[in-house]
Design a protein that fits this description.
about 675 residues; alpha/beta; Substrate Binding Domain Of Dnak, Chain:A, Domain 2; Rossmann fold; 3 domains; 6-stranded parallel β-sheet; 29 helices; globular; binds FE(4)-NI(1)-S(5) cluster
Length: about 675
């Protein structure tokens, strides 16, 4: 009987019910017709564990797992749940939560470390493949790491040799991961009151690695058993991610590969071309993808592709690698996290090249059904399936590695088995924004750097700033949360800064164009976008580039008129479809930086109401920012807007806003004046 039951055909997802994107629906249907399962189908067949999703399953020792579900009657009359060691529900949920922060911070920061290592070897000229590209940014970053950019000689101040600066920046940067003394240097880039608050609270990170290790120690059985103390370390670790590992990754990538500036490209599976060799790059570190892009654009490879009967080489990106190569080279986005399997299902993916993070192991099974070569490239991220090819990428022979990979893809062009079926859908997008380009577009010539932006916030044309970021989650309709939250925000004059898979979702929907302003924005934001010529949703890059949002917020504080700290600003953060531990680390460094941060789907804290209240309420009293969970996307955006309005009121700029809303003619008069 049991055997018969096990043989029952697995359920398949209803394409229209699981994604708002028609290209995704089309490819999902095709996969199902071919009998290939994807994450969408697997989500139908795997129910999440109820206790795990409440955050109250402790498996940190061999006596457990100890499962502490929330009693149906609630815990108002007292909560006597405890594990074998006596750990309370609060302790268990807090341990699990800070372990997620540690894993997320580790992922971002280890990526950052790899970039720092390549940076140093480029600065020392140990590799020909990588050179320092943006010396201007190098000079800007150097002082933050305590590196002098000038020298005094015979009473004269001279510019220091740029190569010398680069080497010292590389050395100082690498030390941030493991130095024995001092604190993470970039914390001082936060507004001064924020840094002082962190000092007072004892959460300034000492070095990046140490804070991650200490979480693993403190969450081992029998160590830290106070949820507040656990969260204190969680806060210190998250700051080490946002203002440390991630920010260093962004800066060093910009110096090595170039600081992004606005450019035009396209997004969605429709960017793939039947008559081209299609190479999809998926993962996170641009160290690999930069080289592949360079090689794929070389005449040698182009000629080789033509020899094989292809018209050219089409590159496309998935996940944050997509964002990295879009921002710097205009390489189109093939799709978000949940579309990775579907890129292969087109039958036109000649090679999928992956490095680290957010890569489904099932790609190997999907690739087996087609001709696609699936190539892993990173020593820490391999797959067990035997059709996966591992070509280890090393900065010392980066160009050769990249050539080998691109050549393998070209050779595979003639091996296509299945009928090619590429969805038509793709949208134009403008991407490549950053702290620097916002300064250019929304800066002022005479007063503060971000003066125009601040002025428009003060006069109410822009109601506030929303940072909307994060993943897709197979437990919720693909892209629906992302798009609904973003559209609701811009409709209410909230300008959106986006990164990660939210940015890709927005690009696919066409929201990253200046023309969107007239269609979706409230009158104030539309006017600003039209005047300045920017989209209402600004793509700031990959998930490590959330550090750009922190620095943009800091610039807004510096430009004046909107308070003294990030927690004073009319801003709010959001991750409508989060799923990764990295998102939890990001969420928490936003909170620790003073931002009200709303997540969608679920948060694994509901089984410990006291701990949950600590995150959702008490944190605001300490840090000016707090967590929230709102599943419905409209309500989600509305809560962000309510918070923005609360901040506007506290700043005394709510009156200007009222006039915008109530009387257009009045507002126009006000604008002219
Ligand atoms: Ni961010 Fe990038 Fe996407 Fe989520 Fe994964 S790609 S680092 S974790 S799924 S946004």
């Amino acid at each position: 009987m049991a055997e018969e039951k096990a043989k029952k055909a697995p359920k398949v997802a209803d394409p229209k019910a699981v994604s708002v994107d028609t290209a995704t629906q089309e490819m999902l249907k095709r996969a199902q017709d071919l009998g290939i399962d994807t994450a969408f189908d697997r989500a139908e067949n795997l129910k999440p564990c109820n206790i795990g999703s409440q955050g109250t399953c402790c498996k940190n020792c061999g006596m457990g797992p100890c499962r502490l579900p929330l009693p149906k009657s609630g815990v108002e009359d007292g909560d006597d749940r405890k594990g074998i060691c006596g750990a309370t529900a609060n302790t268990v949920a807090a341990r699990n939560f800070v372990r997620m922060i540690a894993a997320g911070a580790a992922a971002h920061s280890d990526h950052g470390r790899a970039v720092a290592e390549v940076f140093l070897s480029a600065a020392r000229k140990e590799t020909d493949a990588y050179q320092i590209k943006d010396t201007q940014k190098l000079l800007e970053v150097a002082p933050h790491l305590g590196v002098e950019t000038t020298v005094e000689k015979d009473g004269e101040v001279l510019d220091r040799d740029i190569d010398e600066i680069a080497v010292e920046v590389g050395e100082k940067a690498i030390a941030e991961w493991g130095k024995d003394e001092g604190e993470v240097l970039y914390c001082k880039r936060a507004p001064e009151p924020r840094y002082e608050l962190w000092k007072k609270m004892g959460v300034v990170p000492r070095n990046i690695d140490r804070e991650i290790v200490e979480i693993m120690h403190r969450t081992h059985i029998g160590v830290d058993q106070d949820y507040k103390n656990l969260m204190k370390q969680g806060t210190r670790c998250a700051i080490a991610d946002g203002w440390g590992g991630s920010m260093l990754a962004t800066d060093l990538q910009d110096i090595l590969f170039g600081t992004p500036y606005p450019l035009q490209s396209e997004a969605n599976l429709g960017i793939m071309k039947e008559d081209h060799v299609n190479i999809i790059i998926h993962g996170h570190e641009p160290i690999l993808s930069e080289m592949i892009v360079a090689v794929a654009q070389s005449q040698e490879m182009l000629d080789y592709a033509k020899e094989k009967g292809a018209k050219g080489i089409q590159m496309g990106g998935i996940c944050c690698t997509a964002n990295e190569i879009l921002q710097r080279h205009g390489v189109p986005l093939a799709g978000t996290f949940l579309q990775q399997e579907l890129a292969i299902v087109t039958g036109a993916c000649d090679a999928m090249v992956v490095d680290i993070q957010c890569i489904f192991q099932n790609l190997a099974n999907v690739a087996k059904c087609f001709h696609t070569k699936l190539i892993t490239t990173h020593p820490i991220a391999k797959m067990e399936q035997d059709n996966v090819i591992h070509i280890e990428f090393d900065e010392h022979h980066a160009l050769e590695d990249a050539k080998k990979i691109v050549k393998m893809a070209i050779d595979n062009f003639t091996e296509r088995k299945a009928e090619v079926m590429i969805p038509k859908q793709k949208s134009v997008c403008i991407a490549g924004f950053g702290v620097e380009s916002i300064k250019y577009h929304l800066g002022g010539s005479f007063r503060g750097d971000y003066f125009t932006l601040n002025d428009n916030i003060i006069n109410g044309r822009i109601r506030g700033i929303g940072g909307v970021v994060g993943c897709n989650n197979a437990r919720t309709k693909h892209n629906e949360g992302h798009l609904t939250v973003v559209k609701e925000l811009i409709k209410n004059d909230v300008i959106v800064l986006t990164t990660g898979c939210n940015a890709i979702a927005c690009a696919m929907e066409g929201l990253l164009t200046p023309e969107t302003a007239a269609v979706y924005c409230g009158p104030g934001l539309a006017e600003v976008c039209e005047t300045v010529g920017i989209p209402p949703v600004l793509h700031l890059g990959s998930c490590v580039d959330n550090s750009r949002i922190l620095l943009a917020a800091t610039e807004v504080v510096k430009a004046g008129g909107l308070g003294k700290d990030i927690s004073d600003l009319p801003v709010a953060g959001s991750a409508p479809e989060w799923m990764s531990e990295k998102a939890i680390s990001i969420g928490h460094y936003f909170v620790a930086s003073g931002v009200y941060t709303v997540f969608g789907v679920t948060l694994p804290v509901s089984g410990a109401p006291v701990f949950q209240d600590y995150l959702y309420k008490e944190f605001e009293k300490m840090y000016g920012g707090m967590w929230d969970l709102v599943v419905d996307p409209i309500e989600h955006a509305q809560k962000m807007i309510a918070h923005i309005d609360k901040k506007r009121k506290a700043l005394g700029i709510d009156k200007a806003r009222e006039r915008v809303l109530m009387d257009m003619a009045d507002r126009q008069k006000l604008d002219v004046a």
